[in-house]
């Protein structure tokens, strides 16, 4: 590998006949196919099924019972270090360093765990043992291990490595803790037990010879159990976790599917994905570990082995813009404190190809021509400035750029000399070509999932007995059952819906209904027009045909009760040809921009853009352009728009919501039985979520925090707020929570409070009237997107900020009910009786099966025991009908219940709110307020998309290097990095090219902190729906 500087101190290379030799890529073993199991139908009952009582039924769930767990575990933290020649302590903090150092520590038995028969497990953050480490029993003890050897990532052998061990906690009487403690107090217990289970699984796989790849703490994939997927692999595996239950501890087991990188050369990976898709290739490889294939020179009197496995492993950074015959690196000038390094002006540079041919003695493989992907340059050093990610034959190399890259720390290697290390999960967001395939591989009906768990998963997890009749989990003091459990459950009724004057109420059948022939419950206020733009390729009729379609659409909208000026004009229908002169060749953005400016210049004029096919880039461009300019616009494919009244009615649902109307109400009598009208008039419902930009994004990418809040007692319309915050931050920033809560409260007041002079702008307060509250006394808050390990922080920060924001605006205390919606769990429920499920047409292995038993439970499934946590009150609710795959119920935890809603009321109210998602004629999978917040977060991703996809677009996240007293570069602390990311998020918010020009403007005496133009909120509709 070429050094950062061409000139190094004179060194004598050792003789090595394999110098420059390229290792073969190991041959791929035969694929380990899944067991042959049923693909649909009912889940079989257990050996001794329970008898349901009263209104309950029994379903099966993907848990086995755990009757015994380790009684006590002792937790220790580990810090790996050595002392430098100057006497300084040097710590090893990188994830790979810690993993390799831990393995070296265990191999040397430097803590005498093997010698003293102490059982131990780790997740590489904490060490747990079943006894105190010998000789150290004081609870506050910190001590060092015996010395051991460790090979650094650069291949240097460290002979004086130590582990500093600090006692953290004693987890005693674990079984009782899992039965009685609040879930916020259990993450450390669960983490310790999961590490114990994981160790059993790894040991068991070695005994059976079935290769298992561990991904993260809880997922285990069959190494050769995959399906090819256009350059990637869909890997088959299983998730497992210890869970507290109301009756006993449980072990959750669930099939898992992930996209893996194939263990091939980087050049072959580029060819398999496509030479014209290098941006996507870079996203897929970002952060991936690569292995250097060729044998490098080692040197006399050096303790570094450049050919050790540790030294061969490098991290992918980026693809360079030039071929190896063009890309150069340069000798650097000596370091000068306080100045950036520079390439020597006298050095004319060395091409990557000549270095590897002449210096490294590499004989490139056949097919590695000068302009082939084999000779693309891959940077495994520091990320550097470069051109757009593409390699073109006619590009003339930029000497100034290449000098700068050398100074910045690039290390270029030809793509054919790097192999992707096996068993690496793709961390970036997949593009449609792979997303559709992943969905196809991951979606399995209940019967197939149960079959995989019982025939393969339980054996891999060590639940089933081995050939000696012993269960592998027993080696770590677990006692487990050998079959999936039964769970008592009930079915909640599906809500009744009411519509506008003269419309019949709608009965929901298995989670869905239609809007044929109904007037919306609250049609949006009068607006002037809806104009249609047919983009090229979206509509193949004449303009007259399009005008007829437009006229029919307007009639349908009026039939649903929407109010227009009585005007239908052919001028409201346009195409590229009617907007531009003949010979003009505008791009899509120019076409849409001209349409918006001509037809949608006020929010009373709505636009509908017809596009040829679903295209997220087009969608994002149109939405961003419209929102930043305060225009309301919809998109639809041309084929869907002309596909009949049902499709057009779905578009009508969106139009009504965006203009502040709502499409249906709940049946008044049924709603009042759950929560009275008087109480609803004094209650605001809030939904909140945070979205991250995903792997493969730009460095410093922010997270998006959103709140939506109801504005009437119907709980149907939820205007929203949006903020950018530090990337990766799971809790909503204190200041953002404070300001967004107050925004939602002010909107609620505008809709509900009538002041003494009937003017909402009056500062004079009327005498308190319980039927006319100035502020809502109650708040039901649905929080999406936080895990159980964050519950305590949520209670201490988010809930306190909500109360503070309310108190300082409203001058009174808030009655808050705070509910977390959990979707990222692995609990599943399976029907065992035909009357619990439903039938449908299925396509299995390319064959259509009519009237097949789906196997999912009907909408309304409620589970409040056995698989729920002991504390606080929590429940599973499956509110929707699963069309594909196995349904995932939402798991709701009530962290605070200031409104004192009963355990019967809360699930029923939540079930109803799952049918308050007005854009659809189906129930959604979790409470609509949280679902709507998620949709608003997705709109935030749309706004960021141009910046995220353009690596050269400013601003760029940069952290200045820090140096110690000796002038050596030091690693920035986590706190410092978080502070830098938080400041960068604020910078992005103020950058017009990224977040629009409206942030920070004064609107009605308040600082506007949302990215869209304020006029979009004048009707308080959900313009993003």
UniProtKB/TrEMBL annotation:
<feature type="domain" description="Piwi">
    <location>
        <begin position="606"/>
        <end position="945"/>
    </location>
</feature>
<dbReference type="InterPro" id="IPR036397">
    <property type="entry name" value="RNaseH_sf"/>
</dbReference>
<dbReference type="GO" id="GO:0003676">
    <property type="term" value="F:nucleic acid binding"/>
</dbReference>
<protein>
    <recommendedName>
        <fullName>Piwi domain-containing protein</fullName>
    </recommendedName>
</protein>
<feature type="region of interest" description="Disordered">
    <location>
        <begin position="756"/>
        <end position="775"/>
    </location>
</feature>
<dbReference type="Pfam" id="PF08699">
    <property type="entry name" value="ArgoL1"/>
</dbReference>
<dbReference type="InterPro" id="IPR012337">
    <property type="entry name" value="RNaseH-like_sf"/>
</dbReference>
<dbReference type="Pfam" id="PF02171">
    <property type="entry name" value="Piwi"/>
</dbReference>
<dbReference type="InterPro" id="IPR003165">
    <property type="entry name" value="Piwi"/>
</dbReference>
<feature type="region of interest" description="Disordered">
    <location>
        <begin position="1"/>
        <end position="28"/>
    </location>
</feature>
<dbReference type="InterPro" id="IPR014811">
    <property type="entry name" value="ArgoL1"/>
</dbReference>
<dbReference type="InterPro" id="IPR036085">
    <property type="entry name" value="PAZ_dom_sf"/>
</dbReference>
């Amino acid at each position: 590998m070429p050094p950062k500087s061409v000139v190094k101190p004179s060194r004598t290379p050792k003789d090595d006949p394999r110098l420059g030799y390229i290792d073969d890529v190991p041959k791929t073993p035969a694929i380990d196919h899944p067991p042959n199991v049923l693909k649909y139908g009912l889940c079989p009952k257990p050996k001794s099924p329970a008898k349901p009582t009263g209104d309950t039924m029994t379903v099966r769930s993907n848990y086995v019972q755990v009757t015994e767990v380790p009684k006590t575990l002792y937790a220790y933290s580990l810090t790996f270090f050595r002392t430098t020649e100057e006497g300084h302590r040097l710590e090893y903090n990188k994830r790979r360093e810690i993993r390799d150092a831990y393995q070296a520590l265990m191999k040397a038995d430097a803590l005498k765990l093997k010698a003293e028969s102490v059982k131990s497990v780790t997740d590489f953050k904490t060490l747990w043992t079943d006894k105190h480490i010998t000789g150290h029993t004081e609870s506050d003890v910190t001590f060092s291990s015996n010395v051991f050897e460790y090979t650094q990532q650069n291949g240097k052998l460290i002979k004086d490595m130590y582990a500093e061990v600090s006692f953290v906690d004693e987890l005693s009487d674990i079984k009782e803790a899992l039965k009685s403690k609040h879930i916020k107090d259990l993450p450390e217990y669960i983490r310790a037990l999961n590490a114990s289970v994981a160790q059993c699984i790894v040991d068991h796989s070695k005994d059976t010879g079935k290769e298992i790849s561990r991904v993260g703490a809880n997922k285990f994939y069959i190494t050769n159990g995959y399906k090819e997927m256009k350059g990637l692999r869909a890997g088959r595996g299983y998730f497992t976790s210890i869970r507290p239950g109301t009756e006993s501890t449980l072990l959750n087991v669930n099939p898992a599917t992930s996209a893996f990188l194939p263990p091939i050369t980087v050049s072959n990976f580029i060819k398999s994905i496509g030479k014209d898709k290098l941006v996507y290739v870079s996203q897929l490889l970002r952060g991936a570990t690569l292995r250097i294939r060729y044998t490098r020179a080692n040197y006399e009197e050096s303790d570094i082995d450049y050919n050790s496995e540790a030294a061969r492993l490098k991290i992918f950074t980026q693809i360079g813009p030039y071929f190896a015959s063009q890309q150069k690196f340069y000798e650097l000038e000596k370091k000068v404190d306080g100045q950036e390094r520079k390439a020597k002006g006298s050095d004319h540079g060395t091409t990557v190809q000549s270095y590897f041919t002449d210096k490294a003695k590499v004989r490139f493989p056949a097919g590695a021509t000068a302009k082939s992907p084999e000779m693309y340059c891959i940077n495994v050093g520091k990320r550097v400035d470069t051109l757009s990610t593409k390699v073109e034959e006619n590009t003339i190399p930029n000497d100034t750029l290449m000098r700068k890259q050398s100074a910045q720390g690039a290390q270029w290697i030809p793509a054919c000399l790097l192999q992707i290390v096996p068993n690496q999960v793709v961390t970036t967001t997949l593009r449609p070509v792979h997303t559709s395939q992943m969905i196809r591989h991951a979606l399995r009906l209940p019967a197939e999932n149960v079959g995989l768990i019982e025939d393969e998963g339980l054996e891999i997890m060590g639940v089933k007995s081995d050939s000696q009749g012993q269960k592998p989990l027993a080696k770590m003091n677990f006692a487990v059952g050998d079959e999936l459990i039964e769970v008592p459950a009930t079915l909640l009724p599906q809500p009744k819906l009411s519509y506008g004057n003269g419309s019949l109420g709608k009965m929901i059948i298995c989670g869905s209904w239609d809007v044929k022939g109904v007037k919306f419950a609250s049609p949006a206020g009068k607006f002037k027009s809806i104009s249609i733009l047919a983009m090229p390729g979206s509509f193949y009729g004449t303009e007259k045909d399009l005008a007829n379609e437009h006229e029919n659409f307007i009639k349908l909208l009026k039939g649903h009760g929407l109010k227009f000026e009585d005007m239908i004009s052919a001028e409201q229908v346009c195409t590229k040809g009617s907007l531009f002169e003949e010979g003009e060749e505008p791009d899509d953005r120019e076409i849409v921009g001209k349409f918006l400016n001509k037809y949608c210049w006020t929010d009373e004029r709505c636009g509908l853009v017809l596009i040829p096919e679903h295209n997220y880039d087009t969608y994002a461009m149109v939405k961003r352009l419209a929102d930043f300019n305060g225009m309301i616009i919809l998109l639809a494919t041309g084929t869907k728009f002309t596909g009949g009244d049902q499709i057009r009615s779905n578009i009508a649902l969106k139009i009504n919501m965006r203009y502040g109307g709502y499409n249906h109400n709940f049946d008044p009598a049924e709603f009042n039985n759950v929560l009275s009208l008087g109480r609803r008039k004094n209650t605001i419902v809030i939904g909140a979520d945070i979205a991250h930009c995903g792997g493969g994004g730009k460095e410093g990418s922010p997270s998006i925090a959103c709140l939506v809040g109801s504005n009437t007692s119907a709980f149907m319309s939820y205007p929203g707020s949006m903020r950018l915050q530090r990337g990766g931050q799971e809790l909503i920033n204190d200041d953002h929570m404070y300001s967004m809560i107050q925004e939602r409260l002010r909107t609620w007041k505008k809709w509900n409070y009538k002041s003494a002079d009937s003017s909402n702008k009056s500062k004079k307060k009327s005498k308190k009237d319980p039927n006319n509250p100035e502020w809502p006394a109650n708040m039901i808050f649905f929080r999406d997107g936080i895990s159980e390990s964050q519950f305590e922080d949520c209670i201490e920060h988010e809930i306190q900020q909500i109360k503070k924001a309310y108190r300082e605006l409203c001058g009174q205390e808030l009655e808050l009910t705070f509910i977390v919606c959990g979707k990222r769990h692995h609990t599943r429920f399976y029907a065992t009786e035909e009357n619990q499920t439903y039938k449908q047409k299925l396509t299995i292995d390319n064959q259509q099966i009519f009237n097949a038993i789906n196997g999912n439970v009907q909408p309304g499934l409620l589970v409040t025991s056995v698989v729920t946590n002991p504390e606080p009150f929590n429940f599973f609710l499956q509110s929707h009908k699963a069309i594909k795959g196995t349904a995932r119920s939402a798991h709701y935890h009530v962290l605070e219940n200031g409104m004192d809603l009963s355990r019967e009321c809360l699930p029923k109210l939540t079930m109803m709110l799952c049918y308050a998602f007005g854009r659809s004629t189906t129930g959604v999978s979790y409470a609509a307020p949280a679902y709507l917040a998620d949709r608003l977060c997705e709109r935030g991703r749309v706004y960021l998309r141009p910046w995220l996809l353009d690596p050269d677009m400013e601003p760029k996240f940069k952290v200045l290097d820090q140096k110690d007293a000796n002038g050596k570069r030091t690693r920035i602390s986590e706190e410092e990095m978080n502070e830098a990311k938080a400041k960068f998020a604020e910078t992005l918010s103020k950058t017009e090219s990224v977040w629009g020009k409206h942030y920070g403007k004064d609107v009605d005496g308040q600082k506007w902190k949302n990215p869209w133009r304020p006029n979009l909120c004048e009707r308080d509709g959900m313009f993003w729906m």
